[in-house]
Amino acid sequence: MDMAVIEQKLTAQSLNDLARSLGADDSGVVSIDDPLLEEDRPFILRAFPAARTLIVLLGRMHREPVRSPARSVANLEFHSAGHAIDETARAVVRHLEDRGIRALNPAMAFPMELDSFPERGWIVSYKRAAEAAGLGRMGIHRNLIHPTFGNFVLLGGVLVAEDVAEHATPIDFNPCMECKLCVAACPVGAIKSDGYFDFSACMNHNYQQFMGGFANFVEDIADSGSAAAFRQKNSYSETVSRWQSLSYGPNYNAAYCMAVCPAGTDVIGPYQASKAQYLKSIVDPLQKKEEPVYVVKGSDAADYVAKRFPHKRQRFVRSSLKVTSVNGFLGGMRHVFQPGKAKGLNAVYHFIFTGSETRSATVSISNGRLTVDDGLSGLPDITIRADARGWVRFLAKEISLVRFIATGGLRIRGKPSLLAAFGKCFPS
């Protein structure tokens, strides 16, 4: 675009025009003071203290590659579309910088700020930002659905060190049709028909090739005394696949929820023409595919795969979401809680942590639901008082329960069986 076309005064329209001229298929502009960015704001300002405005960039993905049961094809599309969005963001920064306007482009996905992983790695939660920017709404599969392009999109952004007078507003409807095809296609049952999302099931399978799954792979190498022992934990094809992830970009094991979603005016036609043919050509190949499915033993996902997809090969792995701190334990509990394992359990837990981290919390499990509140409230059925570092080591199975108690690091008041029942709700 000729720079003379861009108005001298920065406006939302001029920023959108710039973004779309440089490759974005859609975009929206929001203030970092937007209520939907409240959780992200401290991380945005840590990365770029001058930030005042966020341009959310949206790029289309090609639908058929994402739908392919051949994961190499789908992954190539993810990476290609992701690189394109990052290049668009970089081009926007270049144009703004040439005008003397400070701007910064956080990555659309990777690399991330992983110094506190798994508590948080991203600077901007682009799905929330895209909702604020009027680019769509999240469906029950937790993917953003654009009204036109559906969920076949990737998101990026540019932080700008200037305020603009006008901002986008969220759309007033959700394009999600609640057809539940994502529920039917998910190989690990992470998406529930009632709207519950089992984050850990998705993480352990889909992200097995990188992040926490890669850390477990390294520990497998360290713990193996021989090549034969290592191959008992990781097959030849899995090891080669990890090399591919390191060399060409991380391999996602599934994006079936995205692949089968018919929402969006550009996407919905075949589904409306014949639901039966849509199921046969798009959903069935993913459901019938014989493939390894990565689950934690004793998890709801393991039970689901055995019942729903017996032809898929269960591969038992350790959880990809490691607890590295008490804050991470309390904050991450909702991500690994297994409602199916909590049936019949109704109890209130008081946790009191001392030592390197001083925290107290009330954890309630009732009717398959979990609540975690700061501080101690109500009458507990069991009280757990623990040294913070020792608790993290206990969860990592570096110290036994008996030794933890014997050394004075853990004291329990109440029925010990409730602690065992608690553990079953969080298999690792």
Automatic annotation (TrEMBL):
<dbReference type="InterPro" id="IPR036527">
    <property type="entry name" value="SCP2_sterol-bd_dom_sf"/>
</dbReference>
<protein>
    <submittedName>
        <fullName>4Fe-4S ferredoxin</fullName>
    </submittedName>
</protein>
<dbReference type="GO" id="GO:0051536">
    <property type="term" value="F:iron-sulfur cluster binding"/>
</dbReference>
<keyword id="KW-0411">Iron-sulfur</keyword>
<dbReference type="InterPro" id="IPR017900">
    <property type="entry name" value="4Fe4S_Fe_S_CS"/>
</dbReference>
<dbReference type="InterPro" id="IPR017896">
    <property type="entry name" value="4Fe4S_Fe-S-bd"/>
</dbReference>
<keyword id="KW-0408">Iron</keyword>
<dbReference type="InterPro" id="IPR003033">
    <property type="entry name" value="SCP2_sterol-bd_dom"/>
</dbReference>
<feature type="domain" description="4Fe-4S ferredoxin-type">
    <location>
        <begin position="167"/>
        <end position="196"/>
    </location>
</feature>
<dbReference type="GO" id="GO:0046872">
    <property type="term" value="F:metal ion binding"/>
</dbReference>
<dbReference type="Pfam" id="PF02036">
    <property type="entry name" value="SCP2"/>
</dbReference>
<dbReference type="Pfam" id="PF00037">
    <property type="entry name" value="Fer4"/>
</dbReference>
<keyword id="KW-0479">Metal-binding</keyword>
